[in-house]
Amino acid sequence: MFIVIRRNEAEVGRKAGAIVAEMAKKVGPKVVLGVATGSSPLSTYAELARLVSTGELDLSQASAFALDEYVGLPVDHPESYHATIHRTVTEPLGLDPARVHVPDGNAQDLDTAAADYEAMIEAAGGIDVQILGVGANGHIGFNEPSSSLASRTRMKVLTQETRRDNARFFDSLADVPRYSMTQGLGTIMDARRIVLVATGANKAKAVQAMVEGPITSMCPGSVLQWHRRVTVVIDLAAAADLRLTDYYRDVYANLPHGPNQP
Ligand code: F6R
Asked: Is the pTM of this model over 0.85?
């Protein structure tokens, strides 16, 4: 993993946005993005939106696949990931809504909808650049601890910890859905490049376990240690528990190909 440490959330967003933009340009206009919801990638999306608005980046022909969606939440609910992705990604980044896909958490048959989502990703040629956050419990997507490291898109029951963490988006804890449909860890691992962003002290334990701990389904993000092209962009607070910080800084300071091209 390539670890980039910035001072704060704003700097994390600028750096992660620059890295994603560089990767997207390298792939070409039809780049396929994987997009996370939640707070972590918002500053990254803001930087990408800025690059689009200045004409430095054009995503009008790009496609995007969301990581996950709540099950049973109407798509027009403001906190559905359909609505959230439209508001925070599709519009500000100038994507064509017809090429932005979110799992169908309202399907009658969730297994078929999950298999269809996998097939859609495959038909698009796979995900070129996957943007990820990480939960305080180490989840990526909604792959909660104990998820199969080989899992594909499917329905997952959310942990109480995740429901409590996401209660800030709803009127009360009781309103937070209990189920989600999420890309699996195996699905995420198929992405060609991964950029994970994390900020804040409540992510420090998960970041340390993910980057430096053993590969274990108890910290689902740790599966990324098996991926060859993962960039982790974090602020000082989220980096606080890392043990090899000096080494990561040294690697970053001596990059042969420039700071946005890990
Ligand atoms: C979001 C997702 C989750 C979040 C994680 C962190 O689509 O799949 O894994 O990335 O829960 O959430 P935030 O960024 O809100 O702390």
From this structure: yes
Distance CA 13, CA 18 (A): 8
Choice from 9, 40, 65 to test ligand 1 binding pocket (greatest atom count within 8 A of CB): 40
Counting from 1 in the atom list of ligand 1, the atom nearest the Cα of 133 is: 10
Among 57, 90, 18, 12, residue whose Cα is nearest residue 261: 18
Number of the ligand 1 atom closest to the C-alpha atom of 182: 8
Condensed to tens digits (0 to 9), the pLDDT of residues 176-196 reads: 999 999 999 999 999 999 999
Which tens digits make up the pLDDT trace of 97-135? 999 999 999 999 999 999 999 999 999 999 999 999 999
